[in-house]
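Re: your question from the hallway

Yes, I did run it. Sequences:
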Amino acid sequence: MKLLSRRRLHLYEERQGRFYPLFGLIALILLAGFAVWHLALPDAAYSDTEKRALAARPALTVDSLTSGEFMDGMEDYVADQFPLRSSFMKLKTGLTLLFGDRESQGVSYARDGRLIQLFEHYSADQQQKTADAVAAFVQAHEFRHAQFLLVPTAVSLYPELLPPYTETEDELAWREDFLESLPDAMLKPDIPEVFAGMKEAGEEVFYRTDHHWTTDAAFAVFKDAAPAADWTISSFTSGTVCTDFEGSLVRKSGFTPRRSDAITVYLHDDPDLSCLIIHPSTGTSSGSYYVPSALDGREKYEVFLGGNEPLITIQTTADTNDTLLVFKDSYANCFLPFLFESYKTITVVDPRYYTDSVESLFAQTAYTDVLFLYNVQTLAADESLAIVLEGE
Amino acid sequence: MVFSSTVFVFFFLPLCLVFTLAEPDIRVKNIILLLFSLVFYAWGEPVYVILMVLSILLNYTLGRFMAAIPEWRKGILVLGLVMNLGILGFFKYYGFAVDILNRAFGLQLTAHDLPLPIGISFYTFQALSYVIDLYRGNVRLQKNVLDFGLYITMFPQLIAGPIVRYSDVQEQLADRHVTAAGLGRGMARFLFGLAKKVLLANRLGAVFDASGVLTGPTGTLTAWVGLLAYSLQIYFDFSGYSDMAIGMGEMLGFDFPENFNAPYGSASVTDFWRRWHMTLGTWFREYVYIPLGGNRVKPARHIANILIVWGLTGLWHGAAANFVLWGLYYGLLLLFEKFVWFRWEKRPAWLCHALTLLAVFFGWGLFCCGSLAECGQIFSNLFGQAHLGFVDGHSLHLLLSHGALLAAGAALSLPWAVRLRQALMDRHLMFLVVLCAALFVVCTAFLVTQNYNPFLYFRF
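Structure:
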């Protein structure tokens, strides 16, 4: 480095002498200011963006102090309740994206800003366990139609949208493997083909910000599966009920999507067809499958059925005596209304939340059909279906 | 408590600064600082804080005895060495020693797995510097147990250095200038260190983990990318901590020794070790190498001295065989340079720099593993013994996702970055303000989202 003349050095020192005290004071006030802001801010119990309970102030006891629990709890509490937390999260994912890291929490920021959940972890053991349980269950009962609608997700439909060299497992291979282990007599519609056709026609199969399939995609699969399953294809009117839907993948990843999604619902044209939704857990019932009030909240997807429930029963006025038992994840929520014309009673079990015995359901209704409706990623990570089916 | 946590940055640090800066009397100031330091340590080690207090009392008492009974000085020094190293050995090396004995003699001894007290290697070495220098007459007796306690526990350097020798700060404990300008300069330095830790080291660490180079076979390029990420991570992590420590020292009126001087710009391995973790090197030179006779002995003894010092340096970093290996590796490299390499007088500068970086890079290969089996794995990956090809999808994925971070890290690890920081802090104050404001916002964003943890099981 060049030697600075004594005069210039003196000048710099003088400027530093004026600058640093002010700099230090402002920095200290900023740090302390955040602390005061933090203390003044009322604690939130729950994070809408992250969908989890936030850490609360830990209890101060001798035990929690000596074990270090208090300190760990304090670290979580301060970080969880920090002012502007969700804005900071957006800044962080924005910056990492700028640096080329297009993955966050297993979600890829794909071309044109579409969020795609990667297919990452599954166990081959669990795959076999689930398939065995389904096969045993189907063989133990006499169903007219036993059907598995196993829906692939966006990651296998849009591989070309993923950034180059994205690492993800082969969803379609997993699906093939699984379906092959099921009895041949089961109906297993070729959903990838339906989706490929929709993609070619330029239709939206998946939301851009959410892990679910669109109602249009569900309807296309319904039409494809209907003939084999003896389902009635009635006429529907579809309509967009909201255009500012930001789904689960946004909050999971923290990425800011380029645009939000629209939610479409399908309504039966037949004015005489009505349904009654019975929630045994709460003892309530309602005459509408859709919950429009959900559209005003943060959880807009709950417009379908009001979200997931362990068990619901749907009674319809359809002119039939057929009955259906459904095991499903949330992919079924936009699908079920298509079946109202075809069944008198539909019992819907979500094994992730259902803890009672399945056999007890048969005591009330002799089901003619059974339907399993899952997306590949949920099923691959799921242990509850096998447990519920085996009924231990 | 770690520096890179919201509790520390936004609560502990401002609170501590407000209290110590508001108090004019240095006696009281020291007591406040001691209390804060004890809380800081107890935050991470609520039980072992007692061990640290015992260590303080032990070394303080040894000092008093040494001064009171000068004719027993030597005996007291030996007692001090045995006790300090005994405590360190018990907590840090006991399990390792038992393991070696079991393997060597086929014994079945069991070691109780005591967790390692945070920072014990650092504060034991600091305490030893007091006892040894007192014996040598290089420092004065510290009569105030609170001030001595403050020297050992002082939170900025307690858990990750720099290793401050007692002679460095003995004057400052009794009399130091706490100024608003020091607060400002210290804040800037602290922020640079925080940015190194949070924005670079933590992210590079994630790249190293993602490379999977320790845990299984990988392609060759993946292994090099992974180890590069580690080499940069460890520099930014450690030097970032030192920056934060020195910065906080400046805020509190202390002048701590520098610990890093752009080591990745070194022209030789000898040079590297004058610029990497400088306070540890000084400590070993002052208290081990020179007492052993240094280089003023016969060549064979000199070589042995170097190998002893570097074996111990390795062992200081961790109680495992790979750390000893890592230390000896450097011992041998230094000998090679001293007796062979430096005799070539026209060696080109670029070659020296490149070879030094390569030697250090392989050194981290020994350092980063948790066991000798992992060492074998990483070196087999580095040299293509996994037979997965040179370039594979995983390596391209890593490069595309993190190439910009790696390039930025590599660039910022070179000497110009340190000169730039100095130039900003000395002359270009307006640029400094803008940069600090940006770093503050971004660091906060990364700090408060460290535990961003969306509930992974969707509710629907």
